[in-house]
Amino acid sequence: MRHILLATFLISATTVAIAEEPQYQPDWASLDTRPLPPWFNEAKFGIFVVWGPYSVPAWKDRGYAEWYGHNMNRENSPTWKFHRRVYGEDFRYEQFAPMFKAELWDPDAWCDLFARAGAKYVVTTANYHDGFAMWPTKYAQFNDTDKWNSMDRGPQRDIIGELNTAGEKRDLKMGIYYSLYEWYHPLYKNPDTRARF
């Protein structure tokens, strides 16, 4: 009998808690009413880590080096010229992935540095526009190739998992940046007009 009463109480409490949660609509007007989390407003300083296969060439004439995979295919752009001069015209972007090894990467050392610098949160690119996932997943694709992630190529490590574990040990709030727009994903190269993103 006690178990039935306890279960009834827990279900009731959960239902009340869910009912009290504000409901948002999938539009900016509704989403803009969502309050800023107090910890974020108080944090003032955080770290944004942008890291992936584009860190191998780590080159850009101006702007963002992480757009290397896109700009190397823009004929006569400075990145296109640099890529052909340094890597050759037959070197494809996906060939950078095995070179992205992270062999000296120490997530604990990184998070120690972030915490000592006064950062309160860390946001990492879990998946940037090149589609390279920084965690083990079977869903990341490059062109028609699967296993486009840090566990199967390059470092062979769960970058996001390891960094989040290290950050949480230091009371850092951990977040991810996940780009839905991927230059090489088959759905973006040949979009299905019926798909709604």
Automatic annotation (TrEMBL):
Assigned GO CC terms: lysosome
Nucleotidyltransferase as UniProt keyword? no
| Glycoside hydrolase family 29 N-terminal domain mapped to chain residues | 17-192
Write out the GO MF terms.
Answer: alpha-L-fucosidase activity
Q: Name one GO biological process term.
A: glycoside catabolic process
Point out the coiled-coil segments of this chain: none
SUPFAM superfamilies attached here? (Trans)glycosidases
Tell me if Cell division is a UniProt keyword of this record. Answer: no
One Pfam match, given by its short name, reads Alpha_L_fucos
Task: Supply the enzyme class, top level.
Answer: hydrolase
Which of UniProt's keywords are assigned here?
A: Glycosidase, Hydrolase, Signal
Fetch the InterPro entries from UniProt: FUC_metazoa-typ, GH, Glyco_hydro_29, Glyco_hydro_29_N
Listed EC numbers = 3.2.1.51
Q: State the function annotated in the UniProt record.
A: Alpha-L-fucosidase is responsible for hydrolyzing the alpha-1,6-linked fucose joined to the reducing-end N-acetylglucosamine of the carbohydrate moieties of glycoproteins.
Q: Which family does it belong to?
A: Belongs to the glycosyl hydrolase 29 family.
The name under which this protein is listed is alpha-L-fucosidase
Organism of provenance:
marine sediment metagenome
